[in-house]
Write a structure and sequence with these properties.
7 strands, 5-stranded parallel sheet, alpha/beta, Rossmann fold
Length: 143
Amino acid sequence: MSEVIVVGVDNSETAKRAAMAAAKLATALGAELHVISGFSDDRIEEFGSGSDRITVSSADSAEYVARKVSEELDVPAGNIKYFAARGNPANALINYAETNNASLIVVGNKRMKGLGRVLGSIANSVAHGAPCDVYIVNTEVDA
């Protein structure tokens, strides 16, 4: 069984940068990359009218985000999977990594400076609770 690298994503550009770094690592190491998007509630919404209705849950939305990001990554076919994971982003990544025996969690450094550092960041929470190594990607863009 190959090693598993887990990366957390949302719709942000910083998350996409972290995912690109995770993809490079996974490819270089021959590891399987799992792209994870967390969701914290069981909200369900219905769209449409009459008999043409569609139901979308928070889990569906999270899985959609993970799938879209995974489709943009340059990882060999069969070495990438995407999932939605229940919980706030940090706990979802920690629990997923533990359940799937991940060797590495990759996260971006968003909210690790200034007021965000005081209030807490996903990267900080993951680093303190991870069952494996954590790689924190510098996702800031030089102006």
